[in-house]
Amino acid sequence: MSTFPTFLPTARVTPLRGGPVLRWGILAPGDIAKDFVYAMHTHSDQRAVAVAGRSAERAAAFAERHGILRSYGDHQALVEDPEVDIVYVASPHSEHKRLALLAIAAGKHVLVEKPIGVTAAEAREIRDAAAAAGVFAMEAMWTRYLPQTDVMLQLRDDGVLGDPRLVVADFGTRGPTDPKGRIYNPELAGGALLDLGVYPLWFSQLWLGNPISINAFGSITTTGVDEQTAIVLRYQTGAQAILSTNLLAFTPARASISGTEARIEVNPWFAVPAGFELVKPGKGDVRLQFLNDTPLQFRDGLAWEAAAVAQHIADGILDSPLHPLNFAIEVLETMDEVRRQVGTMR
């Protein structure tokens, strides 16, 4: 058993500047792509050199707004661009597999927004295609690359928490309810679970591994996507996770890990650059605080992921050592069962 520390470890993250640089192609000029390119260009040396979408006009406007040299109204043209090293897939979830396989077939490395596929089976197809082509592929679970995540995992590895017994995490928000929009349209693989619930599920499996039992309860919108889900997971050790996600209310988006010796309480919006407290329970809790003291706020944190991917590829690594494809697949296997129980798994 490790003793409670007097100070927190230093975060081990890839430097944002001064390392290898990739030339990025962006597939689908939407909201997350906008923030990804802004974060790269503002906080790192990584550069987007091309963008493509179904609309040539929309792609051209995105390129002009973000200082990108080339734009295409055709996805195939971008993946065949010899000046593109890696493709960032930022389309609606329903297109993740198709666009990832398109890029891989053209010999490009790929970073695919989460979840990497709508189902675990789709994720396996992407993994196997990338392995056969000898290219890098990763799900864009950017939270894994944030400084807070590294520090928390160092505490885990040092045994500071003792045996983790309970993970609690939620992520809920309200947004546009357009039935044809990305979130509420089942044809675009909408719903709270695929868009937001992937974060609590990933967080629980990062700390506790694969569950041995899954119990989920949810409700479905009139369009046929999940709008609110509560999940209870049980593990071989007897540990539990209590998770929730929804499209109906702005929740605190907190997360915590309670161990037999100490616990971690992550500040609201745990999926973005945030602080946390390491707590030694007792008569008058002992607390150590980790703060995000960098200029990177909210989705600026995507820059850490981009810089790390460039370093992985420069090092000849084709599967992220921090967020391997098999781990992403295991999270999707859990999500598949949750969606089956809720009634949205096709």
Q: Can you tell me about this structure?
A:
The protein has 346 residues and is an alpha/beta fold. The protein has two domains: 23-142, NAD(P)-binding Rossmann-like Domain (Rossmann fold), CATH 3.40.50.720; 143-297 and 319-342, Dihydrodipicolinate Reductase, domain 2, CATH 3.30.360. Helices cover 32% and strands 22% of the residues. α2 (56-66) links the parallel β2 and β3. It is globular, with a radius of gyration of 20 Å.
Give a topology summary.
Blueprint: E1 23-27, H1 31-43, E2 47-52, H2 56-66, E3 70-72, H3 75-79, E4 86-89, H4 96-105, E5 109-112, H5 120-133, E6 137-139, H6 147-157, E7 164-172, H7 192-208, E8 213-220, E9 226-234, E10 240-246, E11 255-259, E12 263-266, E13 276-280, E14 286-290, H8 302-314, H9 325-342
Parallel strand pairs: 1-2, 1-4, 2-3, 4-5, 5-6, 7-10
Antiparallel strand pairs: 7-11, 8-9, 9-10, 11-12, 12-13, 13-14
Helix pairs in contact: 1-8, 4-5, 5-9, 7-9
